[in-house]
Request: fold
Amino acid sequence: MVEKRAEANMEWHLNQVFGGGDKPADAIGQADIVSALEFDHNGEYLAAGDRGGRVVVFKKDDSKDKARKPGDPGCKLEYKFYHEFQSHEREFDCLKSLEIEEAVNKIRFLKPRNDSQLLITTNDKTIKLWKVFNKSVKRIITSNDKQPETTSNTSACLHVPRVVSENCVRTAVVRKVFSNAHAYHINSISVNSDQETYISADDLRINLWNLSCNNQSFNVVDIKPNNMDELSEVITCAEFHPQQCSQFAYSTSKGVIRLADLRQSALCDRCAKSFQEPEDPSNKSFFSEILASISDIKFSSNGRYIISRDYMTLKLWDINMERQPLKTIRVHDYLKSKLCDVYESDYIFDKFECAISGDCTQMVTGSYNRNFVVCEVYGRNEVVLQANRVQTKPTPNNRLKMANINPDTIDYTKKTLHVAFHPCENVLAVTALNNLFIFTA
Reply:
């Protein structure tokens, strides 16, 4: 039976913008720059974290959604502000004399079980489980407002207190704090499909946690050598399989994606599968090891594909084929002549994220100059868009293409590091500095 593939709608348009104006990077406070972005499982909520430790949650505007009709291209899904809370504060580790920044590195939603929302946030060292809900404010009043004229001991003299519910206040409270389990900076967290466990990864270890127990975790991957001089790679990202609760994947700085299965061994020293593209010896250079490092990986919703992002490319992998990727999108091919410049300015170490749509037809990743690339999974179409408040109407003559980008005109401070796809709709969220852009197709 031939698999029926949905057609990708590549006509993307700017729908909403949240955040400050289009200011220069040096005029924006570091605390206001967005550092994490995530949709929940059905796209009802969208959360963004910043380097100041704040998390802002947006909710789908139901008033706009009621006007939508199936198949109506003119209707646009919109979001509105829901709640904001301080997730992390700046701390100081006295034992290591190390300052721990409050920046939110990752946000992950749990599937809701009632009207409240549960989400996990992390900075470099501490993971927190938050509950966002509507709390009703209650006030105690008496049943009799007037004093009785008689002073006799009757029931009319009794003032029975009564509790009255007034306005609802939206609030966020910490349910669990998971700390002191990572010696190095946490780079990723991922919730299991069973909604009971999750993994957290740092440079050398991956830990498995149970959401109901914050004082114990299990080490499932440990690549730390006995002699640190023999260290050849570090873990860069980890992600649970969306359907198989025993499987997860993690990437390394060598450009390797390893698929591990907890059914084989509690400590996944040996991976079930390993995905790596062989390097062409003729292309080897001083920058090869840096460029090979994978900054982000994502599973497709059906678990069939893995997408990975390194500095130069976006790759699509079939989970059943380890020897080479199905597709390679050369995002930064125009920067080959500028590698020395981006290395000296440390831009070569920027970590761009990637995402794949819920129907597994499109992939997206960020770039510089507020650019981001949307490409088809099954086809060859690619679209370069810009996260700007003012959008020019694309025509065949002015449509931006990766091959036509001039590296001499690139502003490396304006980068779109974080991207997220709506799990059900053609809605795409990207960030540029302190702005959040929502595009629809």
